Amino acid sequence: MILYDYILSASCYQVRLMAALLGQPLTTRAVNFHPAKEHKSPEMLKLNPKGTLPVLQDGDLVLTESAEILRYLTRDTPDWRGQDEVWLSFAAALNGSIGTARLHDILSYDADIDAVRRAGVQHLRQLEAHLVEQRFDGMIFLTGHTPTIADIACFPTTALAPDGGVSLDVYPSIRLWMRAIRSLPGFIEMPGIHRLHELEAAP
Ligand SMILES: N[C@@H](CCC(=O)N[C@@H](CS)C(=O)NCC(=O)O)C(=O)O
Which atom of ligand 1 is nearest to 10's Cα? Predict the structure, then answer.
């Protein structure tokens, strides 16, 4: 399985993290996303006409959406699947708000930075409210007692929010959830995911 990958992409990190947690071997091919825009090269556009990363190739199969890649990686591990659809859509929304703010701040992408940060804060408030409810029911993850692809889809962009100028300090339940994800066996990091934003659970 080959992942066309960019080390600073939160969407590519979803795939690297999922494969690592599952213990699935993954060959990564580094794409010079910035500054060379290699994801828009003729070779890459042949693979993915949308010109986006990640792209996963497994034999003749080519997948170009992170949500479908997460579903594919977990096709034989039902424990990683739950009531995920709403959260996979939410992850895409996070990518549009906080993810865009981050690309603006770290790679100088054009964006209405105040608007995307405001939208990002709304998304984080929604996420925090849901995680508070989960904790009332004794659950730390988005859809239950154990993590699913919903968590892995939402974690990278959320954890990287400070890169886009959006603080995580005021969201204790998000910070506990991030800590729980980081504690999973097989967890791997990417640049920008900082331990200092996480909280320890109360005894
Ligand atoms: N819908 C895609 C979007 C992924 C995405 O936003 N990828 C960014 C990199 S993090 C990208 O390739 N953007 C194209 C560009 O900025 O030119 C997915 O979820 O896989």
Answer: 10
In this structure, the answer to whether residues 113 and 176 fall within a common structural domain is yes
* CATH assignment of the domain containing 37: 3.40.30.10
Instruction: Give the domain extent around 31.
Output: 2-77
CA–centroid distance, 6 to ligand 1, in Å, is 10
Whether residues 102 and 45 fall in one domain: no
CA angle 97, 102, 106 (to 5 degrees): 160
Residues of the chain with pLDDT > 90, as a percent, come to 92
In a domain, 198, yes or no: no
196 CA distance to ligand 1 middle (Å): 27
Q: What separation in Å is there between the alpha carbon of 130 and the centre of ligand 1? A: 26
Domain boundary among 48, 77, 106: 77
Residue 197, ligand 1, Cβ within 6 A: no
Global pTM reads 0.95
Domain count, the chain: 2
Model confidence pLDDT, tens digit, residues 105-128: 999 999 999 999 999 999 999 999
* 60 and 97 fall within a common domain: no
The tens digit of pLDDT for each residue in 133-180 reads 999 999 999 999 999 999 999 999 999 999 999 999 999 999 999 999
Among 6, 9, 11, 87, residue to substitute to test ligand 1 (most atoms within 8 Å of Cβ): 11
Ligand 1 atom with the smallest distance to the CA of 95 is 6
